[in-house]
Specification:
eight-stranded parallel barrel, 12 helices, 10 strands, about 50% helix
């Protein structure tokens, strides 16, 4: 079952290229600190700025380092069906445990269009698929009804990363989807309420900088210890806010730089934090004893 704390891993850069030493260090950090699964090539990875050959090289490198110690999810979705199919097939061939497929961005498809899109990919590529719903990035929301329909009709569509911020929508999915279908929180500020209504975990930005805190929090939720989970949620609240003071993954990468794990390097148009926000981030990390 898809569950636990998955990190939406950043991609470290150095002098314009992927920083392989830093990437290896980040992976080891998560293996050591209890992260339950690793998402490669998600939004937080600046995937849109990576060339196709860079993506494949990164996947091969990371999968070799992870070596089956935790499940690996690979982001394969685009707004081009043929490219999404090719990416998803490549993820399967490389040994991914699941593929995360974002709703097609910019196009603003109808619900029927999204249904046909996901149905075609699921019917074509034999790999567990997680729908990624993040309307704030894509401009289109996949409805609870469409997700539930796909979940019932496509056995290899195993879950949804729900980042709409709509608890009513998530409730409907959890209530109406088949047994075994997993809702994963895609918004760290809502991890606790989503887990309280039946979500199985999170795909987290905050886990980049505090993997153990996040995995312990999700573990408390999965055990049903919501008194402890509430304390952890409140403790993590400031850190969750800091990770989104500017566009993701800017704060997460700046935090990892302050922690000495990567260089604060981005690919345009992603850029450095504003000075005032960098100061707030630094002060926050000190409160968590991360620096």
């Amino acid at each position: 079952m898809l569950q636990g704390s998955y990190v939406a891993l950043v991609t470290p850069f150095k002098h314009g290229s992927i920083d392989w030493n830093a990437l290896e260090g980040l992976i080891q950090y998560h293996l050591d600190e209890g992260t339950n699964g690793i998402l490669l090539l998600g939004t937080t990875a600046e995937t849109a700025s990576l060339a196709q050959d860079e993506k494949e090289t990164l996947l091969r490198f990371a999968l070799k380092k992870i070596a089956g110690k935790v499940p690996v999810m690979i982001g394969t979705g685009t707004n081009n069906l043929s490219q999404s199919l090719a990416n998803t097939q490549k993820a399967r061939d490389l040994g991914a445990d699941s593929a995360l497929i974002i709703t097609p961005y910019y196009i603003k498809p109808t619900q029927n269009g999204m249904y046909e899109y996901y149905k075609h990919i699921a019917d074509t590529v034999d790999v567990p698929i997680v729908i990624y719903n993040v309307p704030g990035r894509t401009g289109a929301n996949i409805s609870a009804e469409t997700v539930v329909k796909l979940a019932h009709e496509c056995k290899n569509i195993i879950g949804v990363k729900e980042a709409s911020g709509n608890l009513t929508q998530a409730t409907r999915i959890i209530r109406d989807a088949p047994v075994g279908f997993c809702v994963m929180s895609g918004e760290d500020a809502l991890n606790l309420p989503l887990m309280a209504i039946g979500a199985k975990g999170c795909i987290s930005v905050t886990a980049n900088v505090a993997p153990r805190l996040m995995s312990e929090h999700i573990a408390s939720c999965l055990k049903g210890d919501f008194a402890k989970a509430a304390e952890q949620h409140l403790h993590l609240a400031l850190l969750n806010e800091l990770m989104f003071i500017e566009t993701n993954p800017i704060p997460a990468k700046e935090a990892l730089c302050l922690m000495g794990k990567i260089d604060a390097e981005f690919r345009s148009p992603i850029c450095r934090l504003q000075t005032q926000n960098l100061q707030s981030l630094s002060e926050g990390l000190k409160k968590y004893k991360l620096i």
